[in-house]
Amino acid sequence: MSQHTTPTKLLQRLMVCAACVLSVAQAQAQDTKIAIFDSQRVMRESVPAKAAEAKLKVEFQKRGEELENLAKKLKATAEKYEKDAPLLSEADRVVRQREITELDQTFKRKQRSYNEDVNQRQNEEIASLVERAQKVIKQIAEVEKIDLVLQDSVYHSARIDITDKVLKALSK
Questions:
Q1: Which N-terminal residues, if any, form the signal peptide (predicted)?
Q2: pLDDT per position as a tens digit, 122-143
Q3: Which domains occur in the chain, in start order?
């Protein structure tokens, strides 16, 4: 397992920090300008997020198809063995069982490698998107003189929501 913080845990930590900062900011100044954005919506709807999703789909399509074909071959081999087993000699059964076991191990190894590679690439794309979103949010905050930008909330007024502005800026 990776020792890196997952995006979900990072978001949770940021939300806790933001809540603490918010309470301090409210205590210090009543004229603090606050904004909020929906990070899940940005990850789902932004142009870079959709582009990354399409890129990953293309990148892993061939390996995914190879994995599906290997799974079908394993299933067909196992079914043929089950059908033929009563007619096979003991030596032939042992050979076929060994073939199935080796095929199963190969499938599991390739599947594990595929899943690890997909997860790594997804995390890379998410990190890139988060970095771009943070730059855009900072620019919006500077232009609109926003003192504090929070991500996600249980409730917020639409007038402080900058998600649409973030999505628009990311689409450029």
A1: 1-29
A2: 999 999 999 999 999 999 999 9
A3: 7-170 (3.30.910.20)
